[in-house]
Q: What sequence folds into this?
């Protein structure tokens, strides 16, 4: 998937992201059509910094690509003793009921909450 996207100039192999809007508890990052995992990690790190300073951190990302396992990012927050949430959109890959043409994305949602119980 990455090779095809890079070959067709839909995604770049190097990620040059930038914060395009920055407020107290929120921010927007432009991913520069780079690797989604780099941008997702950066966004969650920034959100965690904002939580530490303001009590809430919400960072939106635009112009990015597939960011891998959605659960990775909220776990970053949980490891810091915070509640983490990650949501994303997805290209149509699922046909609706009684349909044959993919029209719906999977649109992952992932949440992590810190606990004093061991993770198995």
A:
């Amino acid at each position: 998937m990455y090779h095809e996207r890079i070959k067709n100039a839909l995604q770049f192999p190097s990620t040059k992201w930038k914060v395009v809007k920055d407020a107290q508890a929120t921010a927007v990052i432009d991913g520069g059509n780079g690797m989604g995992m780099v941008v997702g990690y950066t966004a969650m790190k920034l959100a965690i910094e904002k939580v530490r300073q303001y009590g809430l951190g919400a960072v939106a990302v635009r112009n990015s690509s597939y960011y891998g396992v959605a659960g990775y990012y909220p776990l970053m927050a949980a490891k810091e003793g915070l509640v983490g949430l990650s949501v994303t959109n997805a290209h149509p890959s699922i046909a609706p009921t009684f349909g044959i043409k993919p029209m719906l994305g999977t649109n992952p949602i992932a949440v992590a909450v810190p606990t004093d119980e061991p993770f198995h």
